[in-house]
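re: ur question from the group chat, yeah i did fold both. here u go
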Amino acid sequence: MADEILRKNDSEIFEILKNENEDDFSRIFALLKINKITNQEDADIFINLLTNHSNPIREACAIKLDEIFNINKIYFDNDFAKNKIINAISDINPNVCRSICSVFEKNRDFARALADELIKKINLILDDIKIYEKENKDFFNNKIKNKKNHAKNKKLFSLYWLLEALTYSYREENYSEIVKILKYTITFLDYTIREKTAKILINLPNPPYDLLEIVKSDQNFYVKNQVYDKMTLD
């Protein structure tokens, strides 16, 4: 089956991808066969698989997107593709999230074009966290034992990857909004959120001194290491 798919031409490959009746195995191998995209219709068929499909298909699509984005970016500069990509950042599969963030890291202009939507998604999650925190109080309190709460961990996971994407999406006009986000996320009990906060902070032009002090005095090595030997505080 795999050999048969790998022998197909481009038009046959995209026929497999758009056919919802094809099994996952066939569509995954079809995704792996793609080396380039030559028209908008094929690009839409491809990027549609990034969300609302099975976990293996989403992952294969994200990995392939990271491989081909740079030579096919003209086909992803539209609202349909951008919405798919922005939603995939907080996929439940970390391999999907990682691949999308890799696209952002390698294509900063594209990442900056999505900054407003990215900040909007972060603020929505932070609003949810603030509501959750009123009842559970375990995002910031080390004495709370409810550390395996699925709803809490899902929010943390999404926030983690959205902050990673924000690292590559800075625009001067978003400076104040980003600083407002960082002032809140630097207080999180979860060190991975503080680590991502520090990573964004150190890459800001003229980062707020008070936030740098907080990061440099953090008790977690991975958080503190983001600014170690990169910023001298008197």
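okk and heres the other one u asked abt
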Amino acid sequence: MYQADRGNYRTNESMGKAFMHSCLGKLIIFVAFILVVLIIAYFTTPTEKEMTVDMEDNIMQCLEANDSIKGDPIDDYVTNLGAIFSEADSTKVAEEVRQAYHMYNRLEVYRHALYATAYLRNNLHPEGVRVGFGAFGLVIPTVLYKDILLDVGPIHKGYDQKLYRQTIVPDNDLGKTPNIQEYHYKRNPDD
């Protein structure tokens, strides 16, 4: 059989273009991209000093946001999101709250190869609770107000006694309860 167009089946792709369109070429490009991102992450991981300074500031912002109204965790998440890009006002946190924070809490920072983490240790969390992490030059707080210990008091007198419980006994007397019965519908005979 005779083929008239033998030259049309040749491709004019260069060796580089053929490599980029092959599966092996795409895999090598993907691995190179991941390596570049990992190298950038390694060199932009915050140092222990940067993490400590930023996390102390973020914790002060959490204390500032919860100074009068103790919010729920959603308020803490919103505060943490704003704390990434802002700084605490040093005059808004009361000095006794700041001293109590430093007395009962200890911030520890651990630097890993590609990121750093910050843990808050206190009597509530002796193993530590993660309150932030840093990567790519950013320190991202995850601190919750309930993780911070600000006052310490006795829980019980001794090991053989019950826990202290503060009970509030209302001193207002509402009087006697009226005789409450089920409601039964009675049909009016005149209807």
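fwiw on the second one: The chain has a mean pLDDT of 79. The radius of gyration is 33 Å. idk if thats what u expected
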